[in-house]
Design a protein that fits this description.
- By secondary structure, the protein is mostly helical.
- The chain is 67% helix and 2% strand.
- It is built from twelve helices and two strands, in the order αααββααααααααα.
- It has a two-stranded antiparallel sheet.
- Strand 1 and strand 2 form a beta hairpin.
- Helix 2 packs parallel to helix 12, helix 3 runs antiparallel to helix 4 and helix 4 runs antiparallel to helix 11.
């Protein structure tokens, strides 16, 4: 039996992307040459994403639960990740594939494909033997390794964290999960310290403000932006830090611009919308009668929660700097598109919980 979609969830998503459009225009209009450059691209992915979202919601039979679709998407993500490693470098990394004037980040599609695959795999049967978890564990590790090799350490770790959460919700024994994470940890530590720019980020986090003109410049400007906003902000469009002081203001550090222009009120408003979104996702997951849809919604909730937490923690210097946009708000077409597709899946699931 189908019920109504979760309207509160949909309203919050729409509000977040509208805030995102406004803040992307505000934070990038001055420095991009063309004041509408980033805004138009973000608007395009918003429109395209919502078209897919409503298409998913309109279908009575969820095509994304089809075993062939899931495996094709997983294989496609794997191929795209390999192709990205041989693509033209952008900003010193090979994270994007370019086509028709747009760039797409395969790691974002990989997050969705991993969530779908794990939901399907764990819904087949649930056993307590560690061998049952070997296949999904190997797939997750391979995907994570490819992403870290781009290099994109933040997204690689994020996929591992999403998978760990889904393994937990699948019913795995904690000791098995602990053994797996302990086995991966040395590789992650080596990857973090073996790269000069990653090591600089770690040192900047551990020993802050010792080199504010060098490795600490970005986080220093981020904290200046948030701190100068006060309670109500300096006013929309009036940020000083976005004027060549704060690198990637429209993407990774858009929350800092929100803090400066809209102040504490703006930050709390965005955080409240994200919390409501997460509350509705996990409520929908809890009410789902089928294990596949329960785990699928939970995986999407973990994705949104972790990415929001990591981004905001980075902006506030609670964690080292990573290249992860604020969900639904920060500039990034690939991330936005995948998050809107995931939102469509959650809304579709919300109709099935009755």
């Amino acid at each position: 039996m189908e019920g109504k979609i979760d309207r509160l969830f949909l309203i919050c998503i729409i509000l977040l992307v509208l805030i995102g459009l406004i803040m992307v225009f505000s934070s990038s209009g001055v420095i991009s040459g063309n004041p509408f450059k980033f805004f138009i691209k973000q608007l395009f992915f918003n429109v395209f994403g919502f078209i897919i979202l409503f298409y998913i919601v309109s279908k009575k039979k969820p095509f994304y639960s089809n075993v062939i679709f899931i495996h094709v998407l997983l294989f496609l993500s794997f191929i795209l990740l390999i192709l990205a490693l041989f693509s033209k470098p952008i900003n010193g990394t090979r994270r994007w594939i370019e086509f028709f004037g747009f760039t797409f980040q395969p790691s974002e599609l990989a997050k969705l494909s991993i969530i779908l695959f794990l939901s399907y795999y764990f819904s087949l049967k649930r056993v307590e033997k560690i061998s049952f978890y070997a296949v999904p564990a190997v797939i997750v590790i391979v995907f994570s390794f490819l992403i870290i090799s781009e290099p994109d350490f933040g997204s690689g770790v994020l996929i591992l964290a999403i998978a760990a959460g889904m393994f937990y919700f699948s019913g795995i024994k904690i000791r098995y999960l602990g053994i797996g994470l302990a086995a991966i940890l040395p590789f992650l530590v080596f990857s973090a310290v073996s790269s000069e720019y990653r090591l600089d980020r770690i040192l900047s986090f551990l020993f802050p403000f010792t080199d504010i003109r060098g490795r600490d410049f970005q986080i220093y400007q981020s904290l200046l932006a948030v701190g100068s906003g006060g309670f109500t902000g300096v006013g929309l469009g009036k940020s000083v830090q976005k004027l060549f002081y704060l690198p990637q203001a429209q993407t990774d550090f858009i929350f800092a611009v929100i803090g400066e222009e809209l102040g504490f009120v703006g930050c709390i408003s965005v955080l409240s919308l994200i919390f409501i979104v997460l509350w509705r996702i996990f409520l929908i997951s809890k009410k789902s009668r089928e294990f596949f849809f329960m785990l699928l919604s939970a995986g999407i909730g973990i994705h949104v929660a972790l990415q929001a937490f990591l981004n905001i923690s980075m902006v506030l210097k609670l964690l080292p700097t990573k290249g992860l946009p604020l969900p639904f708000v920060g500039y990034g077409g690939s991330s936005l598109l995948v998050l809107l597709i995931e939102s469509g899946i959650v809304l579709s699931t919300s109709k099935r919980r009755y």
